[in-house]
Amino acid sequence: MQPPLEQAVLDQNGHHAYPAHWEADVVLRDGGTARIRPITADDAQRLVSFYEQVSDESKYYRFFAPYPRLSDKDVHRFTHHDYVDRVGLAATVGGEFIATVRFDRINEQGRPASGPDADQAEVAFLVQDAHQGRGVASALLEHIGAVARERGIRQFAAEVLPANSKMIKVFTDAGYTQKRSFEDGVVRLEFDLEPTDRSLAVQRAREHRAESRSVQRLLAPGSVAVIGTGRAPGGVGRAVLRNLLAAGFTGRTYAVNNAFPDGLTEVDGVPAHRSVGDIGETVDLAVVAVPAERVPEVVADCGEHGVQGLVVLSAGYAESGAAGRERQRELVRQARSYGMRIIGPNAFGIINTSAAVRLNASLAPEPPAAGRIGLFTQSGAIGIALLAGLYRRGAGLSSFISSGNRADVSGNDFLQYWYEDPDTDVVLLYLESIGNPRKFTRLARRTAAVKPVVVVKGARHSGSVPPGHAVPVTRIPDATVSALLRQAGVIRVDTVTELVDAGLLLAGQPLPAGPRIAILGNSESLGLLTYDACLTEGLRPLPPLDLTTGATPADFRAALAQALADPACDAVVVTAIPWVGDNGTTESGDGEVLAGVLREAAATAPAKPVAVVHVEIGGLAEALSAATSTARQTGPGRAAGPGSRPGADPQPPSGGAPVPPAPAGQPTGPAPTAASAAPPAAAPPGSHPTPPPGAPPSDGPGGGAVAGQDPGRTRRIPAYPAAERAVRALAEAVKYAQWRRQAADPGRVPQYDDIDETGAAAQITAMLGEDGDPRGLPLTGDDARVLLERYGIHVRPTLPAPTPDAAVAAAGRLGYPVALKTTAPHLRHRPDLGGVRLDLATEQELRRAYDELTDALGKPGELQPVVQAMAPRGVDTVVRAAIDPAAGAVLSFGLAGAASELLGDTAHRLVPATDRDAAELIRSIRTAPLLFGWRGSAPVDTAALEELLLRVSLLVDDHPEVIGIALEPVVVAPHGLSVLGASVRLAPPPARDDLGPRRLPSY
After folding, report:
1. For the whole model, what pTM was predicted?
2. DSSP letters along 172-187, please?
3. Are 199 and 174 in contact (CB under 8 A)?
């Protein structure tokens, strides 16, 4: 936001300049869009026209008396504002007003006022009757509230007639802290404008409903016009029309081309028209396949005749350079001005396989079968490949979107839709850029709590974004992005092949209750490969069961049924190779027979997943992809659904590397050596997990035994041509199931009594000053130490040692033994270069070390040596926190030195971190065993380390001006820890795009 009151920008005449940053596009409750902007003196005629279309009743509610028309004085008052004490906003569609809101600053007596001492304003709305019920007033309230806070107003007052229940509801439902009084026949409402948890929840719930509805309007239109349909066969428009008809679209279809001759009435059996206006009835969706230079006139034609959404296949936009990028921005502005949303430009199209719609408005000639997977891609080529791969493996889709440059509708919008779509059990996303990572992780976490979300991301290298994607570039490394996605429950895979592999398993099989994998098959070698793959992926395989090459389908059925009945098994991988006949020839034609017996056996334990690895068995994959019905389970069987019971927690065998103790609910230890391992603790019969906050119950969207699916629906057994692919997909399912169980109890953000938040805020304000340097201000050692102390983070003091005598004096103050360290930037945290001398117990040792240091590395003025008291021995670690403008604040942890710097063995979590996050953070690095007693060493104080992480998280979360913290090294001993070095960086807080009023992104 911009500075308040006297700091507001003035124009050359000394008047407050037009605040262009208040302009915003918003999605309304019904899925349409509107433009919110400040009212100006040029809007007089628009205001008069708007007022004429308001009913007498609505005018009465606004002015408490009959008020048929506005006087010239009224029009002047309502269109002339100073943008500080008097502000008016309008919601517009097609350039015309549909609603207005204004506030006037008042004093304690309710009279007009000015200046910072008057922090209350009177607010009033007027919404055109035709647009009431669309959520316009709620959106305007969010925006006028943000404007008021920017201008130093802390409270709104509104007087409403008791009969005006709609407006009273707008205020009371907003979630602000308020009080109500009744006097002289008028209800007076006063409410604080400071956002609350409830107001933020209300805002996000409205955002979800609106964006979900906007996608629904695109995917389930009642009528479609293909604009740019060619007169002769061939071309993009004609291909889309053909695909629409071939899919059996249930709505009305029109062919549109302004070049059609006057006498042409049909194309491919559908009505043909020269424009959308000529159709004579409302069109819900327009597919635009005309050259880019003709698109503006098409958008105008659609907008003026009530089209709700556009799929723009036309190329020549941001992917083509700077001119195309501006053309793309203008396309979005124009479409939104009419209340329309856009998929594209440069899109491949959309598909909805629902029997009630059967929409194939895409260039895909072979539409996918109906299924339970929702697929979103930002690339047409990748979309084609994914559709083909899923088609070959018998997988069906609920919906498919290839968004191209995704200038408007994005993956976030479809996450809003798929979250509660009853036809979608699994979400697959191919992303090349994430325009709003903070919002994406929030939506993905909510969706992943009820159904799997699998993502493969192209353009993973920092700063590499496809030319068509005009989005902010995040500075955080891809490994950090991956860790944050995992924290949100997103299944991150590396290739589109893995995307399909994981999607097939999750869409057709239940989530595993744990990592214990049974392996059986007719090839010992293939079984061993599967066993090795399980160990590589961190699973706990049971010894493979070799049925020998002479195994019959009946042997497979019996073995699979027995494995599934074993309480020590959480999932089964079946391996199969062709049979060898008596004459020595291979027999690979029994795939359908084998598939049948495997489905029969799998049906005996519908709560455990089964995957098949096969080598050249004809017809097996196709037969397995056929649906197998599963009966709805009750009692203990129902408890085996995803996330509905904890996994086993057997004790690890003796010997080997110690395993870090896991947070509650997380399986630990290597694989048991026999099938007699202790069975998992079962949940009480019929029990259900507690859903995460805001998530629906397990029988809602995504509940049931199959991942994200109702257990009464069909299940398919996925088949894979390689053991590694099957096991990798199964490993992702295991990790996701574990996340689902833990999501029911995400932990808490603790509070500490010794934190001085007020003192820290005052110190930060004083150091930054009124005009903080946006590049950041690094704190001196003493300032950083004082700030960290306010949050209970104690940094061991260091004393400068510019001479040997100063070093001896410092050691005398601190007490022996001491450490002598260089602090020059090129030597900091580089003990390998010899810049640190430890355990100096006497003055003689200190002087000798000082001479050695300066002789080897340079003069004291260059080395900047310091003396520090020795800390108890332990494991050196690093704790960091940094703020990325797009992703938010990130907390990081790793071991000091090569582990984190060279090998990248660092874990990350979003701030604010919970106690569970902190526990997982230190256990998720590969070198974690060093903290838990590796090779007989003493385990360190991980509880103290977790508390340090939580205190750093609180400091960054409470004070967004703290844009960077590095504690290095943090020596964690068996009892307690010591922070030996610290750096802090301050800057004016970066803008938050997730706390302000709802608005569509504008790139």
Report:
1. 0.81
2. HTT---EEEEEETTEE
3. yes
